[in-house]
Structure of GTPase Der:
Amino acid sequence: DDDAALLADLEDPDAEGGLVRPAPVLAIVGRPNVGKSTLVNRILGRREAVVEDVPGVTRDRVRYRGEWGGRPLTLVDTGGWDIDAKGMASRIAEQAEVAVEQADGVVLVVDVTTGVTSTDEHVVRMLRRAGKPVLLAANKVDDERGEIAAAELWSLGLGEPHPISAMHGRGVADFLDEVIEMLPEHSQVDDAEAPGGPRRIALVGRPNVGKSSLLNRLFGSERVLVDNVAGTTRDPVDEIVELGGRPWRFVDTAGIKKRARQASGADYYAALRTQTALERAELALVLLEANETLSEQDVRIIRSATEAGRALVLAFNKWDLTDEERREWLAREIDKDLAHVAWAPRVNISAKTGRHAEKLVPAMERALENWDRRIPTSRFNAFLGELVAANPHPLRGGKQPRILFGTQASNRPPHFVLFTSGFLDPGYRRFITRRLRETFAFEGTPIEISMRIRE
Ligand code: GDP
Ligand code: GDP
């Protein structure tokens, strides 16, 4: 019947029992100017990874979703590093290591017009230690003459050098076929835990907001569980803690603690860590300064969390420092900046004094419960029926798009699909979203609504 056909239409090929299996992660490493960003752009088929010569630029995005031959993959571009001249070789290797740690496979790009340098050799040694599968791209082979120079890269001991021209596309398609061959079907590093394991939390926030202090507080006072939780595999970068009577997995706590050691390229790392942690987590616990207005970086982090489709809890830290007089003014400013995530629970805490840290748990539980929610199709359609009866879509040029049917296509986070007889105004869609939130209390979770227009 019709509804069954519509529902079959919605089957999400990536979803397995409600868990989306993440795409494999490919790190593209190499010295500055060898053509990493150019290669990333070629794979993405657009100029998204900015190719630029300005040193010290901080990039917002370092991970990109792409696909090749119908296979999805996540690209980590390491081109955004802020490298200083001193100790450059070892520093590049050290920095590439972070990206490689989080990847399922690696492409090392070498520039054949300059040949092998000591920096390349440093990077190769690091790659050997990391033990991840690697393919060697001999870039800037714009024509046949470059092939000989490419063959010299056998000396790196990474196997066959693949001559490509990232700029002109020469050899890139064959090379990418091999890259896809090398990668596992689903990421082994980003892989989600089996259902029933501890909920996965990404504690994120700008530097110095108090992430390490909060971890110390949470992990210091409570029993730390390691291996003996059902459904967990031991991952040295995560930590599990029991809070409010249940275990929670804080992902990539190692990354939070490591931060201080990374002097150069610190902003790049912060962005990379944040995005990776968000991808591995179910909920983003975003730490903000209670005593300051939101910074651009705070806003970016919140945006990354909602774009990643994670449940969200906002914690205002350093409450012990807040000043009564500023508080009212601050609250107004902060409300303005948070208008788009007014649905996220807020908790005021102090990692230093321990104030109200226990309130984090019920807020996280609420947010995750709503993130997991499924609204039965009958109930959702009853809601739509009432809404449309009381507030029909405004007439547009004598026509009125109708909502024929709706259903929740997936959860984590809730995603609703409306089948309509025409295009719904953005304003009307926002109205539906607002009503959905009012009616079903989706506190703490982003919700998505999409349309399918039936002629
Ligand atoms: P990254 O620092 O490794 O990300 O390098 P970029 O992608 O920014 O490239 C550095 C420079 O090399 C830019 O001027 C590119 O246009 C150039 N380039 C990249 N790939 C090729 C190529 O295949 N052939 C040639 N001739 N130039 C290239
Ligand atoms: P991270 O960079 O986000 O991990 O921040 P840290 O945990 O290293 O904290 C940065 C600084 O803020 C340190 O000097 C902490 O002692 C201080 N700090 C963290 N939480 C609080 C708090 O609740 N109150 C006060 N007064 N200081 C705090």
